[in-house]
Amino acid sequence: MLEVRAMLEGEAAYYAALRATDEQLARVDKEYQQLLKRDKGETTLAKAKEDLRFHMLIAEASQHLLVVSFSEIFTAVFNAIYGCCRVP
Asked: Is the whole model's pTM more than 0.85, yes or no?
């Protein structure tokens, strides 16, 4: 799973750089800035949720159907493992 995720993240970043709207890029940047601030004092699960949210924004910004679809599968697997609600 980790190898597939690593491959997908590269593809997502590539297509996001090509296709993302200014609004999508602004959301990715905002989430990244928040991610940097939240690093301290959070639980491992909270950090994992934040990381997943950040990478989902990039996947959505890629506007690539397969990247988005596979990324949603990773969200479902994450939620199944940790018994969490949907990561926004």
From this structure: no
